[in-house]
Structures are given as C-alpha cells and as structure tokens.
Amino acid sequence: MAVLVTGGAGYIGSHTVRLLEQSGIDVVVYDNLTKGHRQAVANSVLVEGDIFDRGLLQQTIKQYGITAVIHFAAYSLVGESMENPRDYYHNNVEGTLTLLDVMQQNSVTKLVFSSTAAVYGEPEVSPITEEADKKPTNVYGRTKLIMENAMADYSEAYGLNYIALRYFNACGADQKGDIGEDHHPETHLIPLVLQTCLGQRESIKIFGNDYPTKDGTCVRDYIHVCDLAQAHVLALQGLYNGHGSAVYNLGNGNGFTVREIIEAAQAVTGVSIRKEEVARRTGDPAVLIASSQKIRHALGWKPQYTDIKSIIHSAWQWHQANPTGFAK
User: Active-site positions?
Assistant: First the structure.
C-alpha cells in the first residue's frame, strides 16, 4: 500500500507518519506547512502543496501510486473558528471536497478521516458514545460534522470506503523526544502547563472552579498522540482488509480534572506551578469523557498510555529539549 497523509507534518499527522513508516507502509506527506513543520517529517517523502491544488494532488497520487489517504489537513482552533467562520468552511469543507473529488477521479477509495469530539457539542450523557446526539456548538465542530455526512453520502453514491476518528484531547509526544506539540498559538492545557514550568508563562489559568466535579474544575479525556497514531494505522489496515465505512471515538475512557493535570505536571517536573483562577468560559461542559468500546471491539485498538503522569512525562521530554518548538 502507498498512503498519502495530508497535513502529515502537523502534530498528530507526524506521529502517525512515523508509525506508518515503522509498520513498513510507504508514505507520502502532503502539507502546505502553514501549520505543520518540515522538521517533524525530516526523513519522509514530503510534497509541499495546498489541498486546493488539484493538479499537484493528482500528480502526487499518480507519481507515487497512492491507494489510500489519511486526511489531517484542517484548521482546528475553536475560538478562531467562531471569529473567522469563512476560513474554516473554506479550508475544512471545500478543501476536503476537493480532495474527495481528486480521489474519486483517480480511483482512490480508501480514506481515514481526522474528525473531532467537537461534533457532539454539550453532551447529555457520559461517557459519550458514537450514537450520542451531534449538536456542535462551534464552527470547527460543524465543519467536521458536515464532512462526516458528506463522506457517508460519497460512500453510498461512489463507493468511498472511509473511517472517521473522533478525537478527544490529544497530548504527549513520541518517546524519542524529537517530535511533539508545537502550535502557534497554543491552546491545549498540558503544553500550556509545561510552558509555565519552563518559565515561559507566569501562571496557568483555571477557567471555573464551581463545576459539579470532584474538585470544581472541568474533567477531560486525555489521549496520547501515539495511541491516536496507532488507531489510524489500525483503521487503514482495516480498510485494506475489507472493513466497511465506520465512525469511532478515540479516548482513554478516564477523565482528569484541570487541577489533577496541574498536580501531575508538578510531580513530573518538580516545578511549583502558579495558578490563576478566573471565570468559566462560555460553552465549556463540566465533563467530556469518551467511550471507545466500539473501536476496541472492531479493530482491537487498546491505548498504551493510560497513566497521566507518563503522558505528561513524554510531553515534558519534548518541551525541555525544544522549549521554543521546532527550529524556525
């Protein structure tokens, strides 16, 4: 098999590329490097190109004999999506439709799609299963849900065979410590906490301390990026083995409060973290925990990193070695 990984120079994409290559799969990374980093895929085949460049996409598919696609290329900041919805509909929806058209024209029928737990919005049940109501509360989640629906229609009409993976909170880094999370701006809790440990931030903000949880702070499901990568490889292999189109949640099934994350980071780093308690953010649910029983049973996926301290330790290795991220 030869796999095109769009957005493969990004955080989750680069870890997936590494695991694909370690599994003996031929990989071509396709990335415009606006969010991704060339250094994250330094030893991989990289085509620098835009998802809207039909000619380059087609040329790449033909040149490398591409038979499947893993699609990461998308904008993914919730706040930004509300401020600039046009950019998100253009990139996430129109861009993915462009990719699907080129795939169809070149008889590439296998697709693993990077989706999100944001499609659920404010959950009414916990843990969240794939059958829960889809009521996204932000533009980012809506664009992903639109594309999930489009892929279902393409599957019915054109024979597209896809697996969509809905992530919860991605975190951690490869054990080698040479690739990891490098976002600008950074919005994820664990890297923000570790930046505080490095002295790059004066404090970490806790948004709300009166939620109906064990310590009053929000509970989230954190999943190691290498476990996410493993799920993509299993999904791809499943498609080649005749697995039908499907949608799966990816999460540990265990939640940690904001305070627990901070305490775990203090234990790992040995650094005392200054906390700043501020008002709740609008739309932050008290608890977001995934049920991933469906993918465990269907594809045999089993997270290897379930201890939050080991997850944070892998991220700390990366941030210590690369305090400003990838070299610019």
Answer: 140
